[in-house]
Amino acid sequence: MTLGAVGASISSSGAILLGRRVACDAHKDCRPVRVVTHAHYDHILGLERSLRYCRKVVMTPATRDILQVLRGVDLRIGKVSALNYGERLELPDGVLELRYADHIIGSAQVLLETENGTRIAYTGDFKFPGTPALDVDVLVMEATYGAPNHVRPPRHIIERMFTELVEQQLSNGPVCILGYHGKLQEVMQILFDSEVWAPVILPKKVLEVSKVCERYGMRLGDYIAWNSEEARELIARRQPYIALHHINSRSRIDVDAPRIYLTGWEFRAPVRKISDREYVVALSDHADFPGLLAYVEEAKPKLVITDNYREGYAKTFARELERRLGIPAKPLP
Ligand SMILES: [Zn+2]
């Protein structure tokens, strides 16, 4: 199978091109169907242009609702086509489906079965295990943690050490947790399931995203808005509470509280102290290197294209795929 004939590519602007009509996760002129795999900023590139110029903008209902909160626009009208997992969208050159991806709420893989029967898929971002591997001919995939040294301990161990750290910090007062949208709600669920009890204080956007997550079935426990009377009192009295912030947020609630950063780029230890009052926890929403490799082994594609546009190790991973599994692999663009 030569690259020109496979019907999949990645443009210089980061659009994953499937078949002749579909562009995923970035806008591409002359492609009438735009797919948004999930609500993270590096997967909604050129969304305004797509909403203007594409015939259809496809995403799951949860991704649509999260984007509405983050962008402040009404996406329930117009060209947005909310597609549930497994629902089929007939196109002139094939059938498009969104399939479940374990990453943040609403995340999807994209599967296109072309008119000549070729199955092409794009994984979007995903965790593995947790994400069903699609049985395909051509696979376009993320390769964020695509280097052989990107290996993390099992998830349950990281989660347990994370909750222990939070409990330990709460015995001295408030604690601040910083991460991306989606992952913040995931740790709310972890803390709730582990019965870590402390008031949870959320800034506006994080609170609104949390409400959407609850609508789609996540159990997050109780939380209060950072500008509420109750929150102000807790903060003023230095009582124990958990504050959750977006990692790029500049308006931190409490400069004196210890901070826990949630990051996938930590491989030395599940929990690591980086300064007097700062910790990193290796909680990631992405597969590590063995996870990426295991996905490909299950999917058994004839050709793999690794996403070299977004941050990560696409070149290294393509090389390792060829070497370890003997599957032709190419980083693009
Ligand atoms: Zn993502």
Rounded Rg: 21 Å
Q: Spans of 5+ residues with little confidence (pLDDT < 50)? A: none
- What is the 3D shape? globular
CATH architectural category of the largest domain: 4-Layer Sandwich
- Which molecules are bound in this entry? zinc ion
Number of helices: 8
What is the top-level CATH class of the largest domain?
Alpha Beta
The helix/strand series, from N terminus to C terminus, equals EEEEHEHEEEEEEHEHEHEHEEEEHEHE
Overall number of domains: 2
State the fourth-level CATH superfamily of the largest domain: Ribonuclease Z/Hydroxyacylglutathione hydrolase-like
CATH fold node name of the largest domain: Metallo-beta-lactamase, Chain A
Please tally the β strands and state the result: 20
> What is the makeup of the main sheet?
7 strands, mixed
What percent of the residues sit in helical stretches (DSSP H or I)? 25-40%
* Separation, N- and C-terminal Cα atoms: 19 Å
What number is the mean pLDDT? 94
Structural class: alpha/beta
Strand numbers in spatial order across the main sheet: 7-8-9-10-11-19-20
Query: Which percent band covers the strand fraction?
Result: 15-25%
